[in-house]
Structures are given as C-alpha cells and as structure tokens.
Predict the structure.
Amino acid sequence: MISLLGYGRTNKAFAAYFHRHGMSCTIYDDNVHAPATTPHNQPLLPSATFDPARSSVEIVSPGIPPHHPLVLASQHLVSEYDYVAQIRRPACTLFVSGTNGKTTTTEMLGLLCEPFEAQVGGNIGVPLINLDAPIWILESSSFSLHYTQHYAPDFYILLPLAQDHLNWHGTYEHYVRAKLKPLGLMRGGSPAFLQACLQTHPLVRMALKRSDAPTLIFYENSTHLAQQMGLELAKVRFEEPFLLDALLALSATKLAFNTIDYDRLNSYALQPHRLEVFQDAQARTWVNDSKATNVDATLKALARFAHRYVHLIVGGDSKQMDLTPLFETLAHMQVQIYTIGTSAALMSEMAKKYGVNALHCGDLASAVHAIKASLKRDQIALLSPSAASLDQFSSYQERGDLFKKWVLAP
C-alpha cells in the first residue's frame, strides 16, 4: 500500500495521479481528525492511525520535518523527487535553490528556456508528478533536497545562503548540508553555481575530490559572475537583489543552450510582494516586501534604502532565526520599527538593547495606521518582516495583499 504523508499540494497531485492510473493509496495528515475520503474516494486518515507494517512506500510531503512521528515511523520513506524519477525523467533537469531569490530565478530561467520546451515545477509551477516536457526547471526547497537520495540535476543554481528554517532543520549547518546535497549526486562535469564562500565547506571539498566531480562555478557577487560568464551588466535592466537572480538565469541558459537572450530576460515582470514599490493617495512611498520571511531578505531590502529614513514593519514567526544581524544593521540606520506577530515582543526587546526606535503594534493593521500618522514624502514605509506569516495570515501573499489594502484605504 502506498502511503502519502501529508495532504498538501504535492500529495494532492500524487493522489490524483494514482487515481488516474488505478493505483490505491492512503493519506495521513495532522489536520484530519476523523476518517474521511478524498475527492477520489481514497482513505484520508489522522496521522496517529498510520501503521508502517501495512505500508510498502511512504511519499513524504516536503513540509513535514524529519522529527515528525510519521517520518520516524516510516520504513520505506521516499521523496517526491525520487519517486517521480522512478517513473520518468526528462532529457534535462535544472534545480534552483538558495535562501532568497529562488522563485524569481526559477521564473526567469523558465522564461529564458521556453523556446526549448521547458516546464517549471517544484515549489512553484506544475507538481513534479504532472510534469510532461523534455526540460524541467525545479525550484527546490531545502526540505525536498533533505529527503532526496537519488535524483540529481544536470544543472544546479544555488543562490546565496543565510539562516532560515532552523525550526525544521535544527541547525544552520543541517540547512546548508541539505542545500549542498545535490553536489554528491550529480554526474561528472555537470555545472553547479555556488557562492564563493562555500568553497571550503566539507561537502564541496568532497565533491571536488571525486574522480567524476561536477563542474563548480563559484561567484562572489553579480559583477564577478558577469565577468566569469561573459555577460554584459549594462544589458540587464534589473537592480539588486534581482540582478543576481537574472545573471544566474542567463548563465545557466548560456551553458545549457549556448544562448544569451537579454531581451527575453528583460521582459520578465517581477512578481508582487518582492520589494514592490507603490504610493498612497498623498504620494508617499510604501514598499511591500512581504516575501521577506528571513533576516537576510530584510537586510537586502534595507540596503536598497540605506540613505533614506525607513519606517519598517517586522515580526511574525521568526523560525528560531538569530535576529542579531538585523538589529546590528538597524542600529546604524535612520529607522523606526513597528513590531507585529508572535515575535513582536522579542523584536521590541532587541530594539531596546540596540537603541533602535520601536513601537509594539501587535498586528499589521495597527502598524500601517501608526505609520500613516507620521510618514513624510521623503521617507520609506517598508513591510519586510524577517519572519514567516502563518502566525497571523494564511500566507505571505495574504499578508502583502492586506498591507496594500490598508495602506490604500482612505
């Protein structure tokens, strides 16, 4: 019997696939409290009812952490990536991972590779089990990479790493190891882009010692990468942090298909909730950076406005991250912070410690109201929370949409 652990986007797609192919499966999920069935009449059961003795394979939803009872009880655990690879593989696979910028880079790469019949999947786009194209471009989370033991990309883009998801991985080192895991699985000569500071990491050194080592391309920053890959910065319209995303997408496309299409790249429209600048009725500047769910993302946003006075909304589920780098930066800026969510009290305490002006607001609507009362035209109002949204919202998208709604309300 096939067991699906968790009933999110990934395993809903598997359930539909098994139904189409006349295969039975049982789903176990923490949010199910009494036996039910899926739309395909498959058993949907509480997690506590899982019996590993009756299961021949367990496909784990990427969001379920390794310490979860379902994972600990499993005897035939397999990742989404590895299970799909047993069924079919495309002619070429490109993985995109990192802490921030994965989605933008993946979407840019998908746009550049459209003429070559590429399809985008993984965290975004089409679920892996439904992909049907000769080229797959997969936004790959540290969760998926942690559980994957066999499926390796032909090309790997790893954006810069910073602390994130420590509540899932336990430590930052475990998080980094998950991100570097593909290097040990890739075939000899397969290209991988890595930040230069990772050159000394044991997993990188181990990969380089292999007789069939992948080809590792180390970059320090956007300028360094452009020089290495023969790319013209003047022809790329994006600013940081999106410039690095764009250059990595161009670099991978150049290696894979021997083409550099600046015009196609520049036609890419940045998605909402990523340093999205807009103005209110009084022509004051607001920035929706709701997708900034970790400290590193907020630091990149602050760098964009380093010479302006910033009204910054921070807080939410901080995922056990170290907030020190954020407050060390804020201590040297012209800034007033407004704290929200479950980490509001902690952030207010740290602000006091570092001499940063702070107002404990508790919720986003109150923070927006407080900023409206004091924001001047030459200042910036920035939602860049450094934290996940699920303590108060259904997603970072809902958080960003409500932020814009409340800002634009009379």
Summary: The mean pLDDT is 97. The first strand starts at residue 2 and ends at 5. The chain is about 35% helix and 20% strand.
